[in-house]
User: Fold this.
Amino acid sequence: MKKNMLSPLYLTANLLTLGLGLGSCNNAMATPFEVLHWWTDQGELHAKQVLVEHLKVNNIEFEDFAIVGEGGGGAIHVLQMRALSGTPPEAAQIKGPDIAEWNNLGMLAEIDKLTDTGSWQQVFPQVVIDDVTVDQQYMAVPINIHRVNWLWLNTKIFKQFALAPPQTWKEFFTTADFLASKGVKPLVFGGTPWQDALLFESIAISELGTEKYIQAFVDFNHDVISSSEMINAFKLFKKLHRYASPEQQGQGWFWASESFINNQAAMLFMGDWVKGSWTVAGKKAMQDYQCIPAPGTKGVFSYNIDSFVLFKKLHSVVEQRNQAIFVETLVSPEFQTDFSKVKGSIPARTDLDLSGFDDCSLQSAADFKSNVKVPSFTQNMATSSHQQGQMTQLISNYFNSDTLTAEEVVQQLGVMVKALTSK
Ligand code: BGC
Assistant:
């Protein structure tokens, strides 16, 4: 691995600023640097290892604080406990509006105070800058961009039946019903609220269009939330329940990803972090699987930006210095490239050479440039994790209920959103 871009001049300047002599370096460098995250799938573990190695090159000893749980729901709760007891880790995987929520508690370090962020405006696109900025201060370090509105197609099964990629929901149902008639599982779900909601998100984008999707899930506009388009989106969502089977209920996305790549199902809705585990298993984009935008969402990019916040460590210059190195490592071109190649994402920086990335990532990068970009509400880009958790549960209850109607769930969503957003 190439050494990250931390110039000796930079390090020396920072050490001096922080009042540390270079002589104290070795001892200080051994301080473990605790990082909370929820990367626990095979692909995610490999990606995390890239982070560990890059930090090691810069003398930071990564201390793992991994919490299993889809989309980070579990991690946030554990982090809250640690923060309340006054012992937060050095860094934590926090993204979207949660960054501002943690900042309101006065616990986060301002990145500008740790290190020079002068180049960020040039190297990161505006959505990324906006995502990590609170009150004109950078409060988190962006590392990568995942696309959420993907439909994955199993090449072997699609080839076997000479099927064309479904572009519309109508084509999707025709393809899925055909496969079911041949005894092939058309679609695999891991049967958890987070995955149900992720599927609903793509349907909402396709049925509402980007403007109304933003009005509903970013601005919480009550009229749009209770609109007939929203009711239609829920009805369409429910139609996909016919492909769910009891044995997959509660299995989780690792399981869904594995059964898809092992040719047990033809299609899967999931963000492109799912590719990480396929890469580890030696599977190749376009060869073993294909990526297309979820039906009806061509031209739209539902984004999910991974980032880390740093907790204030005012009492320790060593920890602050290590935090500075952590930030510099994470924004370096080398780390952003190496990490995203393994993670299945694209780098948050847009000034990097993407040769060596797989075709789905290249497609993602091209679409990120040209498409309408919407924040993924199921991945915390538009809502805090608390709001997201509540909405996710409601969406999933509806999906799995035999009695709840689309009209009723829309009404419940309206009431819920009012309660969640009232001050
Ligand atoms: C995170 C990804 C992660 C995925 C599944 C998403 O919310 O942004 O980094 O791989 O959850 O764990």
Observations:
- Residues 1-29 have pLDDT under 50 and may be disordered.
- Residues 278 and 286 are 12 Å apart (CA to CA).
- The radius of gyration is 22 Å.
- The chain has 20 helices and twelve strands.
